[in-house]
Amino acid sequence: MSPKVTLTLDSTCFMLNSLAMGDVLAAVPVVKYMVEEYYSDPTMYMVVAKEMFKPFFHFIPEDRFHSFEDKANDWGIPLHFAISALNQTKVKSITRNTPRHMHLGQFASIRLANRILDPGFLKYVPLKQVDISRYGVDFSKSVILVTSYRDATRAWSADSILETAEYIQQRGFIPVFVGKTDMNVELNLSPKTSLPEKLTLGVDLRNNTSIEELASIMGLSKAVCGLDSGPIHLAGTTSVPIICGYTSILPEYRIPYRDKGATYSILPDIPCIGCESRWQSHFWNWEKCYLGHIDCCKSMTSDKFIHYLQDIL
């Protein structure tokens, strides 16, 4: 029989087994709070997360970060370490791990710190700025447009993106397109909803930035526009104005906490808005519209973003 091990918060492995950038970004302040307030010795804690998210944890010593992709020997977690996990393994494909009735940061504080932290401790942690001169773009004159989305219920249509980009260019600013071309989803709003492979206006940085570079670009820009997604949370690590559309999830559960920078929420006036936040999410895969029409996404027209851009620009 194995000896009984008593697990305490004296030594903790913060395991962020999440693929969602927004979930992890909301959890970073909690990890930072714990390591700064509770641990005098870095050997008493460790972080396990996706390698791509390592830049979020620049305050963690190199030897305290373990890549989630390296599963050899259970990431080297000592037996006396408690394991504090952000998300659990999915058992059913339609089960969502992140609650829709609680702010992401508060959820992370319960899972990682075993308490509900005040929003003052949950402010997003800025990333280290990196050199972005290789792009040859004056990003201080740009507006960032997030173009790729995982869920059909949280996706911005190509027509609205391009119309917003045209307005930005007409005002004498540079529309900058960011995201991944293989992340666009079919919304059935038109024969072709994804952006063209080649764009005729602005600067196309799709598939061309690292996380650190994108954060640095956003920090210099006039504004970031898009629907609730990982890049919007990345913008939350800066002080740039954010114009964000919220569809299946209500903004009070997703707006990033930060010291400076306004977030302008677009919330369509339709009966089913915020469905995932208001209904029991365990009975439906909210990546799909329960009613089958995605009216929330269709309501995210360019004029709603231009309304705020008029003042910002």
Short note summarizing the structure:
With 313 residues, the chain is an alpha/beta fold. Helices cover 24% and strands 13% of the residues.
Features:
single chain; 313 residues; alpha/beta; Rossmann fold; 6-stranded parallel beta sheet; 10 strands; globular; disordered N terminus
Structure description:
- This protein is an alpha/beta fold and 313 residues long.
- The chain folds into 2 domains: 12-121, no CATH class; 133-312, Glycogen Phosphorylase B (Rossmann fold).
- It is built from 8 helices and 10 strands.
- The protein has helices spanning 21-38, 104-113, 158-170, 211-220, 230-235, 275-278, 295-298, 302-312; strands at 12-16, 45-49, 65-67, 82-85, 142-146, 174-178, 203-204, 223-227, 242-245, 263-266.
- Strands 7-6-5-8-9-10 form a 6-stranded parallel β-sheet, with helices on both faces.
- Helix 5 (230-235) links the parallel strand 8 (223-227) and strand 9.
Compute the number of structural domains. 2
CATH superfamily of the largest domain: Glycogen Phosphorylase B
Terminal CA distance reads 68 Å
The shape is: globular
| CATH T-level topology of the largest domain | Rossmann fold
The biggest beta sheet is recorded as:
6 strands, parallel
Spatial order of the strands forming the largest sheet: 7-6-5-8-9-10
State which percent range the strand residues make up. 5-15%
Question: What is the residue-averaged pLDDT?
Answer: 89
Strand tally: 10
Radius of gyration computed on alpha carbons: 20 Å
- Sketch the topology as an H/E string, one letter per element: EHEEEHEHEEHEHEEHHH
Low confidence ranges: 1-8
- What is the tally of helical segments? 8
What is the CATH first-level class name of the largest domain?
A: Alpha Beta
